[in-house]
């Protein structure tokens, strides 16, 4: 949560446009306030306010922001509500030091009390503000260099942090430190960058250095020096070239990133299939050999792990559970060296997931992850990694990474079926052919259903509540569809096993109440007809995601989304979710909300 970025350029000149451009790419991390600091003519310039970047931009003159160095922050409030005062950057009493921070300083109250006693004056309610004051205190009290004062400050704080510091004392450097919050460096001939995530500087460079926990970095206009804070030693780490292209972080003509990302799915899924990953066999073998398997994730990623859970149960006949990462405590006493944990994460930075796998690792478990972001924290705590190759996802609501995660689960599942002998060669090859057809099925699904989604959204947008019902494998599709509707259109949407809906939820149904059914032609198809009738008998308006040509189902419902035929029903969780992504998107737009930046949410949830 919170996006941070720093830029150093060759000369002291205009830097406002560059820093705002970079911040805009990080707005998915938080967007309740925004701020920039630079050093010009030996003084700190601070511009900050409550609101999204576009709103704040209306009030400021970007050209007035000059400097050789600048730092910027887009906030997701934790300590103190969104306000101008609580917006970062924060400064010390003398206005010589400016700090931006992503994370939480757990011992901030104790530090703040100490600093108040020393006479420091605070302007905000944030935990972050202790940092510039503490640096100032070390500078005055111990007469150390700026670098040493920052290191001493970092040593005093407890919690999680990605921090960037600039100062009038050394106006050509940015100092950074990292623990449990992401921080990367970008290197270009004319500018150096540091940021929470690569898209911030992707239009300038693909040369990236990943920082690890407990590292401190001093960045100057043409160099970076990394120090390991635990040993005090200097670390040599060369940049690597990311495969992401600059246009991947642009909207490419779509009105929102979310719509662009929904449309990208045929390509992202094809990329996953095309790129061979040696880790897949190792992952399958280790799962096969394990005594216990737990899949671990949060939110949308958790729904993708339900595919993994079902496949492992089916193809290895091994007890296996998907566990919500923040509920890890419930399984902790089952973890040992015969346990495999499969964390699934887009960002690889979700704190609930990270904390769980760190603990599981200490207890001897093997960690085999499926992650989108190369080099992210989850990957660094993993024994093997399967990458999703979905490219940067900037819309806060996950779409293309959900289908990529689900496909990755299938990849693992098929290898497991082969190893265990549950799939003979012919079956394995048949499934692999189906697997390769998924991108084209998803493409047709988008083409067939986008206009319908927009049309149905005009009715859905007037509703306050809805049900999403399914049975068996597609219960997760219903859950993901309901989550999308909730998080971007703010319509209360509850997913339920269709068969269970009569045990309580049906009490809410009244005339014209929306109920979305996911009804592929599988073994659940017959039973779900009864559930549709039950809902309609109470006045519900039924919408179904059904298989093309399913006439009986078409007659039962008011509106339909059609999924093309011609692939194994087993893979249905991938195409069947796509119309539900589109429905949520268009409903949000019709209700006048920004699907890319839903209220109260952040894409990268780095708090517990
Ligand atoms: C919902 C959504 C979230 C994430 C969840 C986990 O659209 O995006 O529910 O799926 O916060 O994030 P990652 O996958 O980054 O661990």
Task: Kindly list the characteristics that best describe this protein.
single chain; 608 residues; alpha/beta; Glutamine Phosphoribosylpyrophosphate, subunit 1, domain 1; Rossmann fold; 8-stranded antiparallel sheet; 16 helices; globular; binds fructose -6-phosphate
Uncertain ranges: none
Oligomeric state of shown chains: single chain
Integer average pLDDT: 94
Helix content: 25-40%
* CATH level 1 name of the largest domain: Alpha Beta
Pairing-aware structural class of the strands and helices? Answer: alpha/beta
Cα radius of gyration in angstroms: 25 Å
Kindly, what is the distance between the CA atoms of the first and last residues, rounded to a whole number of angstroms?
11 Å
User: Can you tell me the overall shape?
Assistant: globular
How many E strands? 25
Largest sheet, described in full?
8 strands, antiparallel
């Amino acid at each position: 949560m919170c996006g941070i970025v720093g830029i150093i350029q060759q000369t002291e000149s205009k830097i406002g446009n560059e820093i705002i451009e970079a911040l805009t790419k990080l707005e998915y991390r938080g967007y309740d306030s925004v701020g920039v600091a630079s050093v010009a003519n030996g003084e700190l310039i601070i511009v900050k306010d409550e609101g999204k970047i576009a709103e704040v931009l209306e009030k400021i003159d970007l050209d007035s922001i000059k400097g050789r160095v600048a730092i910027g922050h887009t906030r997701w409030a934790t300590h103190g509500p969104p306000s101008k005062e609580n917006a970062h950057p924060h400064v010390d009493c003398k206005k010589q030091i400016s700090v931006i921070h992503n994370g939480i300083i757990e011992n901030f109250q104790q530090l703040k009390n100490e600093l108040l006693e020393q006479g420091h004056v605070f302007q905000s309610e944030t935990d972050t503000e202790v940092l510039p004051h503490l640096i100032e205190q070390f500078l005055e009290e111990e007469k150390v260099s700026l670098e040493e004062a920052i290191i001493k400050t970092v040593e005093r704080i407890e919690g999680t942090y990605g921090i960037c510091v600039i100062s009038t004392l050394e106006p050509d450097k940015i100092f950074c430190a990292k623990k449990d919050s992401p921080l990367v460096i970008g290197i270009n001939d004319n500018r150096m960058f540091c940021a929470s995530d690569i898209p911030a500087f992707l239009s300038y460079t693909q040369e990236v250095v990943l920082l690890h926990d407990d590292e401190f970095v001093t960045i100057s206009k043409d160099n970076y020096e990394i120090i390991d804070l635990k040993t005090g030693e200097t670390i040599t780490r060369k940049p690597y070239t990311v495969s992401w292209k600059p246009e991947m972080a642009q909207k490419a003509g779509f009105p929102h990133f979310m719509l662009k990302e929904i449309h990208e799915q045929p390509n992202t899924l094809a990329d996953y299939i095309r790129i061979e990953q040696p880790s897949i066999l190792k992952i399958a073998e280790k799962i096969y050999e394990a005594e216990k398997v737990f899949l671990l994730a949060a939110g949308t990623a958790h729904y993708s792990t339900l595919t993994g859970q079902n496949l492992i149960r089916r193809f290895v006949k091994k007890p296996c559970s998907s566990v919500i990462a923040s509920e890890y405590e419930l399984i902790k006493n089952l973890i040992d060296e015969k346990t495999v944990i499969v964390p699934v994460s887009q960002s690889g930075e979700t704190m609930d997931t990270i904390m769980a796998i760190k603990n599981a690792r200490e207890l001897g478990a093997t960690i085999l992850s499926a992650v989108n972001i190369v080099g992210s924290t989850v990957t660094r705590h993993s024994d093997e990694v399967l990458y999703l190759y979905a490219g940067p996802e900037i819309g806060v609501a996950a779409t293309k990474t959900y289908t990529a995660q689900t496909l990755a689960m299938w990849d693992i599942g098929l290898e497991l079926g082969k190893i265990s002998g549950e799939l003979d060669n012919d079956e394995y090859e048949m499934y692999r052919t189906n697997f390769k057809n998924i991108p084209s099925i998803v493409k047709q699904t988008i083409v067939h259903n986008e206009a319908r989604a927009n049309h149905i959204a005009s009715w859905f947008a007037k509703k306050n509540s809805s049900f999403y019902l399914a049975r068996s494998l597609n219960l997760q599709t219903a859950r993901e569809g309901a989550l999308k509707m909730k998080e971007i259109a703010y319509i209360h949407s509850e997913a339920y096993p269709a068969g269970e809906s009569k045990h309580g939820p049906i009490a809410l149904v009244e005339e014209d109440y929306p109920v979305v059914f996911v009804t592929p032609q599988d073994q659940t198809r017959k039973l779900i007809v009864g559930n549709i009738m039950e809902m309609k008998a109470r006045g519900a308006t039924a919408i179904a995601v059904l298989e093309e040509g399913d006439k009986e189902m078409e007659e039962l419902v008011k509106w339909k989304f059609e999924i093309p035929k011609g692939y194994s029903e087993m893979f249905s969780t991938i195409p069947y979710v796509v119309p539900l992504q589109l429905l949520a998107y268009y409903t949000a737009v019709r209700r006048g909300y920004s699907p890319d930046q839903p209220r109260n949410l952040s894409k990268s949830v780095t708090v517990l």
